[in-house]
Amino acid sequence: METLDTPYELSPEQVEFFQTNRYIKLRQVFDADTLAYYNAVITKQVDRMNTATPALEERDTYGKAFLQLFNLWRENDEIKTFVFSKRLAKIAADLMQVAGVRMYHDQALFKEAGGGITPWHADQYYWPLSSDKTVTAWIPLQATPLPMGPLEFSAGSHRVVEGRDLKIGDDSERQIAEKLRVTDFEHVVEPFDLGEVSFHSGWVFHRAGANVTDQMRKVMTVIYMDKNMRLQQPANKNQENDWHTWCPGAVVGEVIDTELNPVLY
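Structure for Phytanoyl-CoA dioxygenase family protein, as requested:
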């Protein structure tokens, strides 16, 4: 598992690509053995924590998108080792061009066989954070071909303000798609090879297709923020909830330095 902390060297061109498009896919971030090991560990933890999910047909669009479980690092020391990977955290810091990064939270996103779309949205709608220095590492635990529903990006769409106030759901899928249709941002939807990891910033619009295979699409994510990120006054109820859930005890206007938000690099 030495790859967890071995630096991954980014080229200046890769950093520039991220700065322009606010997403990037990087190959061979983790090797097959590391992913196989953590696939098993994370799957077991998800099964342990996922005890009360209704049947697919009983859920709304967002509910059908995936099983969503948070802060697995606090439940399992092996997963903590993975989530605290310095290799990942340094990539996040280098892409954002900041001196260091903190944990915002992690989440497992397991899209079941037959699971529906993940609607268009921007993550930072949910986050009471004072700048756009945020990035999510999206780590498939298996190769993810198009029929499995890999992440899709609207490259450079962080510049679009319209749609940022929409929570994820049917409205965000329809309204953001309509907005993006009349812009010239490139819509990028590609399979993920084993070991490929994407990074996207908090305001870039993204979605994922349905999983039309008979396999679970297993993804682990880690959300990073600039280590000097300050808490801002929540702009909606979801941000207020995120404040108390992921940054408990943080003070509006001050650096988010709580036990749930350790510096990872």
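Strands lie at 23-26, 67-70, 101-111, 118-121, 134-140, 151-154, 187-189, 197-201, 206-208, 217-226.
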